[in-house]
Amino acid sequence: MNLDYIIQISGPMLEGARTTILLFLIVIVLSIPLGMLVTLMAKSRLKPLAWIAHTYIYVMRGTPLLLQLLFFCFGLPQIPVIGEYLVFDRFVAACLGFVLNYGAYFAEIFRGGLLSIDKGQHEAAKVLGLSKWQTLRKVILAQMFRVALPAVANESITLVKDTALLYAVAVPELLNYAKTAVNRDFTVTPFVVAGVIYLLMTLVLTLFFKGLEKRFKFE
Amino acid sequence: MSSMIEVQQLQKSFGSLDVLKAINFSVSPGEVVAVIGPSGSGKSTMLRSLVHLEEVNGGSILIHGKPLVQNGKYAAAADIRKITSTMGMVFQHFNLFPHLTVRGNLELAPRTLKRESTEVIAARSLELLAKVGLADKADVYPSLLSGGQKQRVAIARALMLNPDILLFDEPTSALDPELTGEVLRVIRTLAEENMTMIIVTHEMSFARDVADRIFFMENGEIAESGTPEQIFGNPQLERTRTFLNRD
């Protein structure tokens, strides 16, 4: 492993890392609100809504993410009649798959957070004259996010690594560049460099969530 | 119309179990009522039904003469909110909001309901914290308080909305014995200020001291009621006597 070579391949690999980071940000920003919405649907008194939410969670958690990605990238256009309207850029299709998959996991994480909140919190808020919606916003959600934070951090780090699945649907990203360099240059160095870049990304996330946990310690 | 709370034939059951069987009583302005009785006698359920934390199956509850429930039929949701908003409640397990500071706990409801300016609310929260002896804890989170301090914060929080009736559901039962005194002192101060209160409690000597009237509940009924002198000095029923001697 010589330094010149590492510097030479780092440029294109960081280019690939940009796709990784972009995917990560899009998925986080969209799947967390989606998860929130699905959690509220699952707890809804309207049975059809709850049923849709539970089915959605079951399907997205019960099948491999890779299968879902292949389905969204290559399967959608082949659906009869509507398929021709479902031809997306592969990156967009992959984003869709990731958002739907992670939304289901976040929904389950938030549901767990909600379960941890004592019913006395609802009662205290009710007696103080807050409506259900005010109670949810001002009392329940804040506590739910706090409880869910470690699990959300864990899920985010998993997401960084899952972005490597883009490789399977041929969207060029970090791992893709590494594999190309390995094949071209007959050296394992690019894999090591890729590993270090993933580690750096997860390190940033770890520190970020540690900071958040400290900030919301409520002590 | 002279009574603050009027309860008639209140009745509630869980399945085949009758938790409340035809309860009748009324509470006058400024009166302090202590409710005693064995566990499972329906004390908490009765108290909670007054603020609509429990739904009853029959009977009436009138607060300031306005029906919360009449002959088992509840008022409209908006009316229920309006009627119960004149009452504050203090719980056995405090139920403070752990994600808010002490001050945040006090100010959440008034700020959300927006009936007063922020300055008025902030001034009152400090004033009430001083009243319960916790002015120095305004910016502390509840997790750092002792049980007695938490319960005093809960009382201050209940007072923030200027209720004219305060309900206490075993306010000292979750506290270490050495911490009950500070909470009882605050309740006693409120009694001296003529706050109308119903206190479900196991603290017999406190009930005797602070209450104008005692309800002895057993089996979903108010078995006996009277002044502390009558109930503690000369109980009419054998079961009241048995309960008091057991403690």
Write up what this structure looks like.
The complex is a heterodimer of chains A (219) and B (247). In chain A, 79% of the residues lie in helices and 0% in strands. Chain A contains eight helices and no strands. Chain A has helices at residues 3-42, 47-62, 65-75, 90-115, 119-127, 132-162, 174-185, 189-215. In chain A, helix 1 (3-42) crosses helix 8 (189-215). Chain A starts with a helix and ends with a helix. The model of chain A has no long low-confidence stretch (mean pLDDT 93). Chain B is an alpha/beta fold. Helix content of chain B is 36%, strand content 26%. Chain B has helices at 43-50, 77-84, 102-113, 118-131, 147-159, 180-192, 204-210, 228-233, 238-246; strands at residues 5-14, 17-27, 32-36, 58-63, 66-70, 73-74, 87-90, 165-169, 196-200, 213-218, 221-226. In chain B, the strands form two sheets. A six-stranded mixed β-sheet of chain B has the order 7-8-9-3-10-11, with helices on both faces. A five-stranded antiparallel β-sheet of chain B has the order 2-1-4-5-6. In chain B, strand 10 and strand 11 form a beta hairpin. Chain B is globular and about 50 Å long. The model of chain B has no long low-confidence stretch (mean pLDDT 94). The interface between A and B is medium-sized, with 21 and 27 residues.
Structure at a glance:
Chain A has 219 residues and is mainly α. Chain A is built from 8 helices and no strands. Chain A has helices at 3-42, 47-62, 65-75, 90-115, 119-127, 132-162, 174-185, 189-215.
